[in-house]
């Protein structure tokens, strides 16, 4: 069997060549996180441990919620981790330095103590923080444009950046609450920031995620869309920070705004998923002559439930290797359908499209051979296929 590196093919990189840029980004972001945690621990003392625990507590379910947006074509875990760590490290450390310097040297000297802090919170902080959070999204757009296949990808990466930023920022809020009002104030702050509206930062930055996704998947508006997305993120962030001047009414308005924005993004992702399903049904049948796709496989790829059933079938009959092969086959087939979307819109180089298509077809051939050739699989009916067997097939051109 031909040896293929599934991860390299799915990530669109040369096999055997590590993603140096991503690794450097992870190292730099991790160092920034460690520096921040050290500073917080130094100044927070015993309060730091409590604040850290409360800040981390909502992260696993929130991260799972965000990742669920892109189940049909999951993004590379290493790139998702980079987005989270960038938000938690580089963006927070940079914002801490620039926001502090802005208050000391600009807003407070110009506007006075009270108004200076308000101007910094409503104008300076959104400008600085959303720019720093968005830097990694612009980096992905520039260096890994092919990873962003649609709005769901842009939202996912942006939300993970915002989630990392919010986690580290919440540590400071919780430490301050303990210092100023004890456990009673800490409880109130945790309820507001950790339970009622834990997705504020992810929602703000998702506006830039939409703009970056548009730029990656359309021929027009490639510059305008990210700029508008960044401005929208800054505006929403500024409205959130400035709402405190209106008291309880302001909080109600911004929390309602967050909720409506969340519903809108969910609708966008749902509509895009249906579009992906239609593209699978439209483009993949053309590859039936290669033997890599059958009508039954197309139906399986159109349904998340059928995909899960196929992976369970492969694991039960062929163990973890067969289950991994099935998962890689499903991802490669989905990437192939999305590749046709790029070709249809004319957003990629024709030579790259051919190279990418052949790499995905090669991976589909190898993985399909792997999960169908195990002796224990042959007598086991495929739960998704219905009538009509699907046996091992040769690689493209074979």
UniProtKB/TrEMBL annotation:
- Is Kinase among this UniProt entry's keywords? no
Keywords, A to Z, come to: Membrane, Transmembrane, Transmembrane helix
As one GO molecular function, the record gives: peptidase activity
Record's superkingdom? Bacteria
Disordered: where is this region?
378-398
List residues traversing the bilayer: 20-43, 49-69, 81-106, 118-143, 155-175, 195-216, 223-240, 246-271
Membrane is among the record's keywords: yes
Q: Which PANTHER family match?
A: PROTEASE PRSW (PTHR36844:SF1)
Q: What is this protein called?
A: RsiW-degrading membrane proteinase PrsW (M82 family)
């Amino acid at each position: 069997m031909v040896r293929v590196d599934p991860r390299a093919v799915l990530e669109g990189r040369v096999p055997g060549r590590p993603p140096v840029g991503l690794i450097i980004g992870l190292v730099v972001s991790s160092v920034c996180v460690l520096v921040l945690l050290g500073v917080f621990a130094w100044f927070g003392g015993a309060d730091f441990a409590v604040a850290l625990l409360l800040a981390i507590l909502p992260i696993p379910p929130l991260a799972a919620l965000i990742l669920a947006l892109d189940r049909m074509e999951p993004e590379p875990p290493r790139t998702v981790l980079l987005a989270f760590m960038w938000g938690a490290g580089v963006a927070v450390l940079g914002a801490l330095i620039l926001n502090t310097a802005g208050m000391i040297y600009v807003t407070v000297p110009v506007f006075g103590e009270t108004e200076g802090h308000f101007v910094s919170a409503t104008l300076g902080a959104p400008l600085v923080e959303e720019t720093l959070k968005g830097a990694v999204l612009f980096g992905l757009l520039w260096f890994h444009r092919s990873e962003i296949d649609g709005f769901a990808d842009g939202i996912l990466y942006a939300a993970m950046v915002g989630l990392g930023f919010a986690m580290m920022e919440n540590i400071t809020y919780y430490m301050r609450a303990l210092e100023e009002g004890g456990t009673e104030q800490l409880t109130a702050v945790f309820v507001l920031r950790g339970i009622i509206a834990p997705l504020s930062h992810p929602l703000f930055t998702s506006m830039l995620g939409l703009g970056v996704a548009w730029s990656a998947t359309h021929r027009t508006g490639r510059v305008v869309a990210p700029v508008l997305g960044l401005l929208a993120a800054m505006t929403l962030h500024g409205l959130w920070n400035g709402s405190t001047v209106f008291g309880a009414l302001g909080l109600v308005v911004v929390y309602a705004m967050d909720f409506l924005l969340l519903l809108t993004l969910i609708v966008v992702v749902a509509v895009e998923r249906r579009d992906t399903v239609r593209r699978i049904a439209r483009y993949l049948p053309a590859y039936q002559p290669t033997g890599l796709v059958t009508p039954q496989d197309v139906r399986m790829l159109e349904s998340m439930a059928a995909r899960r059933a196929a992976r369970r079938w492969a694991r039960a009959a062929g163990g973890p290797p067969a289950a991994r092969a099935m998962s890689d086959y499903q991802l490669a087939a989905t990437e192939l359908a999305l590749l046709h979307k790029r070709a249809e819109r004319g957003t990629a180089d024709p030579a790259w499209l051919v190279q990418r298509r052949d790499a995905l077809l090669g991976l589909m051939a190898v993985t399909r051979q792997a999960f169908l050739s195990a002796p224990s699989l042959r007598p086991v009916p495929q739960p998704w296929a219905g009538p009509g067997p699907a046996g091992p097939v040769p690689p493209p051109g074979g």
